Amino acid sequence: MISVNDFKTGLTVEVDGDIFTVLDFQHVKPGKGAAFVRSKLKNLRNGNTVERTFRAGETIGRAIIENRGVQYLYASGADHVFMDNETYDQFELSAKQLEWELNFLRENMTVNIVSYQGEILGINLPTSVELKVTETEPGVKGNTAQGATKSATLETGHTVQVPLFINEGDVLLIDTREGKYISRA
């Protein structure tokens, strides 16, 4: 058990049978009445974000999340097959569980699997990945004052805005948190 007074960003807790990670919290001491903790929590099972208020000193369960290295092997219909790097066990995750992550996932890529008491909650991607540009329009110099961009489709099918000098076949560094172009690799 952990007191809500000890909240930290990134802490994982169990509330009402669901697993949450603390995104933000604020200790509030009103002039009249008891102190409380206002928090923003992300549900690790379905990805929803909720705001909860707890009484100061209230205790809730601490959830110990396990991270293991796994390798993405291939897509099998609507499912995606991964292999544990230590035990070589294979398991599948549905495309619904990997909605955002599929924009950056390549075959044979190593990622971390997030699990709680044997239940797989999802995967953690590296903060940036290298992906190849498969389709983009040629850059045209013209009426641009600064920072002109164009659309580019990556090998995973994800589309990003890139500078005009990027061509097909270039390998780019992409931020997986926001899905944006960082630089050429």
UniProtKB/TrEMBL annotation:
The primary site where this protein sits is cytoplasm
Record SMART domains: EFP (SM01185), Elong-fact-P_C (SM00841)
Q: Would you name any one GO CC term? A: cytosol
Name the domain of life this protein comes from: Bacteria
Report the SUPFAM superfamilies cross-referenced here.
Nucleic acid-binding proteins (SSF50249), Translation proteins SH3-like domain (SSF50104)
- GO MF term list: translation elongation factor activity
Q: Which residues form the Elongation factor P C-terminal domain?
A: 129-184
Metabolic or biological pathway, per its Swiss-Prot or TrEMBL entry: Protein biosynthesis; polypeptide chain elongation
- Which InterPro entries does the UniProt entry name for this protein? Elong-fact-P_C (IPR015365), NA-bd_OB-fold (IPR012340), Rib_uL2_dom2 (IPR014722), Transl_elong_fac_P/YeiP (IPR020599), Transl_elong_KOW-like (IPR013185), Transl_elong_P/YeiP_cen (IPR001059), Transl_elong_P/YeiP_CS (IPR013852), Transl_elongation_fac_P (IPR011768)
The places in or outside the cell where this protein is found are: Cytoplasm
Which GO annotations describe the biological process of this protein? peptide biosynthetic process
Q: Which residues form the Translation elongation factor P/YeiP central domain?
A: 67-121
UniProt keyword terms in alphabetical order: Cytoplasm, Elongation factor, Protein biosynthesis
Whether Cytoplasm counts among this entry's keywords is yes
Q: Which Gene3D superfamilies match?
A: 2.30.30.30, Nucleic acid-binding proteins
Primary role? Involved in peptide bond synthesis. Stimulates efficient translation and peptide-bond synthesis on native or reconstituted 70S ribosomes in vitro. Probably functions indirectly by altering the affinity of the ribosome for aminoacyl-tRNA, thus increasing their reactivity as acceptors for peptidyl transferase.
Similarity-based family: Belongs to the elongation factor P family.
User: Which HAMAP family does UniProt cross-reference here?
Assistant: EF_P (MF_00141)
Listed name of the protein: Elongation factor P
